[in-house]
Amino acid sequence: MSSDEELDEYPDGTVRLRNPNIELMDQDILYHLALGSESHDLISMFGDIKFVCMGGTPKRMEQFAYYIMEQIGHKLPAGTTLLDISQYSYRYCMYKVGPVLSISHGMGIPSVGILLHEVIKLMYHARVRDPIFFRIGTCGGIGLEGGTVVISEDAVDGMLQPFLELPVLGKLIRRPAKLDKKLCRELRALAQPDDPYETVTGRTMCTYDFYEGQGRLDGAFCDFNENDKMEYLNKIHKSGVVNIEMESLSFAALTHHAGVKSAVICVTLMDRLKGDQVLAPKEVLDEWQQRPCTLVSRYIKRYLSMKGRLSLDGHCGSMCVKSPRRFKLVQQESENYD
């Protein structure tokens, strides 16, 4: 089933869950976000969300929140600042800037998978319509110089398989890792001729490990040599892989399974055909990491301009608590939950 066909299942645009158990629960606690379906008024807090932007670290996504606030002209009430809505979870950060959520997803498939389960449920409880999810991150390029922006056309694992394998109740299930092709093309079209860097599309390899899984020679363990590494990297390059990272497979598979449009936009920190370690100075890396944010902001600004929604005034992601007792319970559960 294609992404477009899956999206057509929900004509009203609301996010639906593939889990009938949620409706039978007294309260759905989103443990790792420190939110609950009955403790918080999720419709009031998040019902106007259109874009969910995710990246690895809390600091980077806090910076993105302030950046997108400036880009879309979002004004905060006097005397207020952006609030980390998930501060009581101590795991992820979450900032709301008008119709944009900026959330950290941690490192690797397990971390982004946990977050996506709860963010998709958050969209459902908040009755969000037709959200678009972006992963903004860094990667190693394959045949691409550092600083190149890569928009993923699709995601594969370390065996070049285009699906996420997940053991469930002793059985291995496979979920296709598909990204929205039209969204990919629209993002590519927003690259500008005077950008001082290249923006490309291609296949992204997602691995479960940073060292051996990505063919690095500098981990604690290594049972292959330089020739073995180069043979492998050239092989995947010939198959269309242009970059390697650690989240796209889960991100693509879970958003596709939920019928949510999504895209992955990363910047390369080095060309893995030339080495394993990041050698660029910090100020250069900081500028490179801004490049995917710039592309995503162009998309959001264009969308909001078409809808006549630029220069927004609104709350800064403040808490809307329905039940103080349940709110305290959610806080305790989130702090204690491992």
TrEMBL record:
Belongs to the PNP/UDP phosphorylase family. This is Nucleoside phosphorylase domain-containing protein. Pfam families: PNP_UDP_1 (PF01048). One of its GO terms (molecular function) is uridine phosphorylase activity. GO terms for cellular component: cytosol. It comes from the Eukaryota. Gene3D superfamilies: Nucleoside phosphorylase domain. NCBIfam families: euk_UDPppase. Phosphate binds at R91, R135, I136, G137, T138. It comes from Diploptera punctata. InterPro entries: Nucleoside_phosphorylase_d, Nucleoside_phosphorylase_sf, Uridine_phosphorylase_euk.
